[in-house]
Structures are given as C-alpha cells and as structure tokens.
Write a structure and sequence with these properties.
The complex is a heterodimer of chains A (257) and B (318). Chain A has 257 residues and is an all-alpha fold. Chain A has one domain (7-256). Helices cover 77% and strands 0% of the residues of chain A. Chain A starts with 6 loop residues before the first helix and ends in a 5-residue tail after the last helix. Chain B is of the alpha/beta class and 318 residues long. Chain B folds into two domains: 7-226, Rossmann fold (3-Layer(aba) Sandwich); 232-302, Alpha-Beta Plaits (2-Layer Sandwich). Chain B is built from eleven helices and 13 strands. Chain B has helices at residues 48-55, 77-82, 98-108, 113-126, 142-153, 172-187, 199-205, 223-229, 245-255, 277-291, 305-317; strands at residues 7-17, 23-33, 37-41, 63-68, 84-87, 160-164, 191-196, 208-213, 216-222, 234-240, 261-264, 269-274, 295-302. In chain B, strands 5-6-7-3-8-9 form a six-stranded mixed sheet, with helices on both faces. In chain B, helix 3 crosses helix 4 and helix 9 packs across helix 10 (277-291). The two termini of chain B are 33 Å apart. Classes of the chains: A mainly alpha (257), B alpha/beta (318). The interface between A and B is medium-sized, with 25 and 27 residues.
Chain lengths: 257, 318
C-alpha cells in the first residue's frame, strides 16, 4: 500500500525549495555570522585589560544563535508574502490540503531554518572560540528555546503579514519591529539595572531576551530553574501568538485571492 | 443536497456579495454533467470568476446551495480539492524553473516520482516548453506562462478541471492545441468547467454553455440548441466609409424594427441581429439614399454563438 507523506512535510519541502533562494540563505546565515564576528571582536575594545578576549565572543555566540529564531520568523512572514506576490497563495488555497496545513507548513519551515541557523552559528562560534563543554541538558535547552523562539517569531511575522496590505509597508514595519526586538534584548549585551528604565522594561517584555538567556545558559552550562520559567513563558506567548496568527490568517485570506 | 450520479456539480439559487451591498451573483442555478465541457460565457466582470472561486472552495457563497462531486465545498474543502484541478485567471508560479513548477505540483499531489517525470516530459513536449524548461517561470512571455499554468494542472488527475480563461495570451496555434488537448482529456472521462469571453472557443469546445451577465444566468443550453433557438434570427453585416458612419448609422437606427440588436464595430462597420432581415436591408438602402452614403459591404448570414450571446445580453437588459 502506498503511504503518502504528510501534507505539512510536503509543504515544508516546497517552501524550502521555492521560498528560500540563495539570497535568503545568505541573509539567514551571513548576517548573524557577521554580527558575531564584527560585534564579537568589536566589543572586546571595551573589555578591560587582562580580560579574556574570547569572553565577549563566548557571551555573544549563543545570543546570535538565539537571534536565528528571529531571522527564521522573518523568513516565515516572507514566505507568505512571496506566495502572495507570485500569485501562489490563491493557487495553494485550492490545493489538496487544509488552510491550516498550509500555515503550519510555513511554521515548520521556520522551525527548521531556526534550528539549522542556530547550528551553523555554533559552528562559526567553534571556529572562533574553540570547543566548549556542553551537556545533554544544555543541548535540550538550546533546541527547545530555538524551536519555541522560531515558532513565536514566525507567528509574529505571520500576524504582521496578515494585517499589512502592501509589501513595502510590511518590510518597513518588520524592519522596525525586528530592530527593536534584536537590540532591546540580551542577544548582544547583558541586562543591566544601569539601563534607562523604559529600556529595562523593553528588555523584560521582549521574548528574545528569554530565548537568548536560555540558549546562553544551555551553551555555557549555567542553567537552572530560571530557564524552565523562561521556556514556560515563551511557550505561553507562542501559543497565544500562534492562535492570533491563525485567526488573522483565516480572517484575511479572502482578501489575498 | 442529494447528488444525481450523473452530475458532478450542482448549484442552486446561489447568490454572493463581497461587501454585503452589491450582489455579484444572484440566484444562479445550474448543473454540470459528468464528462461534459460546461462553458460559463460572459463579459469581464459578469461574475464568472466569483462563481469559479465558490465552486473550487476558495470562497463560500453568501446564499444558496452548492455541491461538488456530491460534497459540500464548505465542509469538505480538502476532499473536493484533492479531486479537482484549477487554472486560475491570474498568473501564479512557484519562484523556480518551469520544470521545478511541474515537479513541485506533482509532489504536492502525491504523483509517484516515476509517473511525475513521465508526465512532466510529456507536457513539456506537448506544450512546446522544452527550450524554456530551465528558465524561471516568471521570466517567460505571457503565452508561455499560461501554457505552464495549464500544463502544470495536468500533472495530477482530476475529476473536474476548472479553467478560468485558460487561453488568454496564447497564440492561435497554441490556443487550438490547448483546446484540442482538453477535448482529448474530456473523451477520457474528465469534466471541464470553462469560463471564457471568447465565443469561438466556447463554440469549439463546450457541450453546454450558460450565458452569465451581472451575476445572473440569462440562457443555458447546448451550443446547438441555443443557435437553433435563436436561429430564426439573422445577422446583417454592413460597412460604410469611416467618416460617414456616424450620420448613416444614426439614420439607420431610427428605422430599425423594435427588438433588433445593433452592435457598432470598428472603421464604419456594424452588426444588426434581426428577425426581419428584408426590412433591415430596406432600411439600409433608405439610409444610404437619404444620407448620400455608399455602402461598402453588406452581408446577411445565420447566427453564430457570438450573435446568440449579444442577443441574450440584450434580452437580459430588457
């Protein structure tokens, strides 16, 4: 008996084939790698004499790996826009699958890209820093945070792409939102009570802070109960955003056709 | 709605509005029989594409009942979509090569790899796409893009193929080739629902047609029956000098029998669909004399489907 692949996997494969061109992959891998190299070495200038020059890189590497969740989320929103742009959204909606499967196909692609991107960043970090000791619990934490993070930011960009009607406006809004998300987080620098109060609040409500902290704790083997809290908060946020994304997509999909 | 086994689509009193104010479809009722080519004939904006969107589960009708392959499009969307093919009016491509588009489509519809390759090669050859098979689909000419869209939809088996203006942009040879291919598939048992505003195509391809205008079906029958029904009418073709046309046709229209249809053409020509061709000829001679205009071309012929279409629209307006 012939067993067909699940629709979500087929849709994910399609997304990887048609919606992730070399430019997208370069963006996915190249930009974070450059952040790691330029910021990692650049910030060492601030380090006091006598400090280990690899400490900044070591701090930043897991942050950049977490940042891949944001990039993957951005690619997810981009996939929906790409299908709209090339007229494929209406065509896919008359395809042999449910609308939810189509949406989940995009989300799964986002997760795969987020995990792959994080893996590549750790590879780059290995080349720059050398080997680090990592435990099984650490790996589980990193994978969980990267997975939930990709899903969360994928949902966020899908919400934006469902509500925003022009690609120019979508690009402008995502650039602005993701700039704030990236830089008001612990990806590049630690949280400090010396920060201005509004910025402290931004750090605290920013989900990327929790993704970065968890990935970092997993990577540096500094994990504890706080990481379980981080993951729980991320999971709750992801479920809420995912439901909003599905609602927004179902509400607005007719206008796409 | 209970489905007659010979019917693959049943539509009863279907109405649709996008904004809750203007009805784009009004109490549309028709059936599509298994193995026939059913044509939806109408001008741009008549409601054909909205109807196709409802039949293909893309949107839900506001009122009325629809059954496709015995199933409700609202409740059984995925089951229906697995058994239909849809060529939409707008361009749609995966952002990859021509053959990549074929491969992805076959994969999404679970066509086994060996068969996928065989079908891809067959359609690339049949639709004359070999030279552009490696090109990005989006970089093709309008006609080539349309060929890819139609051929891609044939990568998987369908019980009903919905074609929304499939030959737009195709040259005459390719248009005929596509229509002949569709005829061949119909002979093998496929049912086709086909929208067009090209009446020659409908005449060539369709077993039955529904003439649709401002969301209503004005006439529906086999092409032959429609022609026969309207066959007592004749079409008078008349042509005069371009500069004299305005005065001549103004005078002619004043004298035309009630119920005749006047359709102005280009460069001083016009069609008059009439039940009294002798009377129209008399009026043409009179207008020619009164206005001092020489008639360059005059012809009386039997009605074509285009004339039937014009006649139906005119009666619909009344």
């Amino acid at each position: 008996m012939k067993v067909n692949s699940p629709n979500i996997l087929k849709l994910m494969w399609r997304n990887l084939k048609v919606n992730t061109d070399p430019g997208t992959l370069l963006f996915l891998v190249g930009l974070p790698a450059m952040y790691l190299i330029f910021f990692g070495y650049g910030f060492q200038s601030f380090a006091q004499t006598g400090a280990n020059p690899k400490e900044v890189l070591k701090f930043m590497a897991p942050g950049i790996a977490a940042f891949q969740a944001v990039i993957a989320g951005q690619v997810a929103g981009g996939m929906l826009w790409s299908d709209k742009r090339w007229g494929m959204l209406a065509q896919m909606l008359v395809g042999p699958f449910t609308r939810l499967e189509y949406l989940m196909g995009i989300m799964l692609t986002s997760i795969v890209l987020g995990l792959a991107g994080a893996g590549i960043m750790f590879g780059v970090a290995y080349l720059l820093i050398g080997p680090t000791s990592i435990t099984v619990v650490g790996i589980v934490l990193i994978l969980s945070a990267a997975l939930v993070g990709a899903l969360l930011f994928g949902s966020l960009t899908l919400i934006l792409s469902a509500f925003i009607k022009s690609s120019t406006a979508y690009n402008s809004v995502t650039i602005l939102v993701l700039f704030v998300v990236n830089f008001a987080s612990t990806v590049f620098y630690p949280f400090s009570s010396a920060l201005p109060l509004p910025l402290q609040y931004l750090f605290i409500i920013n989900p990327l802070t929790y993704v970065a902290n968890t990935v970092r704790d997993g990577y540096l083997t500094t994990y504890g109960v706080g990481d379980v809290t981080n993951l729980t908060l991320l999971l709750v946020g992801t479920v809420i955003l995912l439901f909003v994304a599905i609602w927004a997509y179902k509400r607005s999909d007719i206008s796409f056709v | 709605m209970a489905l007659n086994s010979e019917l693959v689509a049943e539509v009863k009193d279907l109405s649709h509005t996008y904004d809750g104010k203007k009805w784009v479809l009004e109490e549309v009722t028709f059936n599509v029989k298994k193995g026939e080519v059913f044509g939806l004939l109408g001008r741009n904006g008549a409601g054909k594409s909205t109807l196709i969107k409802i039949l293909t589960t893309l949107i839900s009708g506001t009122k009325g009942k629809v059954s496709i392959l015995g199933m409700d499009p609202v409740r059984n969307g995925p089951e229906i979509r697995r058994r239909i093919g849809v060529v939409q009016q707008g361009e749609s491509f995966d952002f990859t090569s021509v053959e990549g588009n074929f491969d992805i489509y076959g994969m999404l519809w679970d066509v086994p790899k060996k068969e996928r390759i065989e079908r891809k090669e067959r359609f690339i050859k049949l639709f004359d796409l070999d030279e552009v098979r490696k090109k990005k689909a989006w970089d093709l000419s309008g006609g080539q893009k349309r060929k890819v869209q139609v051929a891609r939809e044939l990568m998987h088996d369908s019980d009903i193929l919905f074609l929304d203006e499939p030959t737009v942009g195709l040259d005459i040879l390719m248009r005929r080739s596509v229509l002949d291919f569709i005829k061949g598939e119909v002979r093998k048992g496929m049912t086709v629902v086909f929208t067009t505003h090209n009446l020659e195509e409908a005449d060539y391809l369709c077993d039955r047609v529904a003439v649709i205008e401002t969301g209503r079906i004005l006439a529906m029958d086999t092409v032959d029956n429609l022609k026969q029904f309207y066959g007592k009418k004749r079409t008078v073709e008349v042509s005069v000098g371009k500069n004299e046309a305005s005065a001549f046709f103004k005078k002619l229209m004043e004298g035309l029998p009630v119920g005749d249809i006047y359709k102005p053409g280009e460069n001083g020509s016009a069609l008059i669909i009439t039940e009294s061709p002798r009377q129209v000829l008399q009026k043409i001679i009179e207008a020619s004399k009164d206005e001092g205009v020489q008639v360059d071309w005059l012809n009386v012929r039997k009605n074509t489907l285009e004339d039937v279409f014009l006649d139906t629209l005119a009666e619909g307006k009344k």
